[in-house]
Amino acid sequence: DADVTQTPRNRITKTGKRIMLECSQTKGHDRMYWYRQDPGLGLQLIYYSFDVKDINKGEISDGYSVSRQAQAKFSLSLESAIPNQTALYFCATRSSVGELFFGEGSRLTVL
Amino acid sequence: AQSVTQLGSHVSVSEGALVLLRCNYSSSVPPYLFWYVQYPNQGLQLLLKYTTGATLVKGINGFEAEFKKSETSFHLTKPSAHMSDAAEYFCAVRTLQGAQKLVFGQGTRLTINP
Q: Which one of A41, A61, B68, B71 has the lowest number of neighbouring Cβ atoms within 10 Å?
């Protein structure tokens, strides 16, 4: 089983719909991250969490929200999806030396 | 704030040739440096990292990178490319201060020609 699991792996939705992407991890890491990947832009940080009670905005948090339900779970929500949120989304956990462990990604298409 | 620049969004080499992917960073303090690889339809996985100590670091699949503080560079190399090396490669930097976030370069897509 993967150390970092994302669901769903693929989702197609319509403008205005609420979407939740879920992430769970078995690494035992406190720090978790949500990134967005767009071609030619690398990875951009949306939100990150140092523990259940500590959630922080990243570079591109507008239009997104997160919930850290437990040490192992960190979900990303789009309250009202729009087409420019079409992207590949990655969840990651972080080790003590800063190495990130990524999930396999959730591809979201907003029509 | 730190930033990362990868020179060349696409690099193409012949099988058996040297692979060189360039990465320069800006940081006001010594950083931790990482190279990640992303194969098609997969997440990113760590190739190698520099934290402290020896400036030449070896990673998986025959890749290595050298931290050159004077040049603020962390270029990735492999002496002989294999077809299986075709992927996208990301350089990333993390400082030891503040929120200690990892900042990624924009990525370099490596193509291997037979």
A: B71
